[in-house]
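Throughout this chapter, every protein is written as a compact record of paired, labelled lines. The reader may check this reading against the record printed directly beneath this paragraph:
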Amino acid sequence: MPKKDHSKKNAFFKLELLVLSALRRQDYYGYEISGIIREHTHGMFDIKDGVLYPLLYRLEQSGYISSFTRTVRNRKGVYYHLESKGISYLDQLIVEYQSRISIIDEFIQWSKQGIEADQPK
């Protein structure tokens, strides 16, 4: 299997991973997605509307999610739903993410071995 060239990628993971993971649980409207992500990442990821909505649009155009209008408490909102194609894409993103974590962990363990070997006794 040929190795992928990750040298030009600067992102550790894609925000799609978080958005699609949220939608795996249930359908949400846009603002709710960003709140769920912010809450469950303990505030580490606060996705702004200017980033979230273009991302949702791209995911919908790719067929990974769909949208529908739902009325709740006399207010209409656009909700997003994870499609089967999106589940497959999410699973792929998870594998890539876990692979990166594993490689970084291996590197950290390797670096610790070098330090331990060089320590005076």
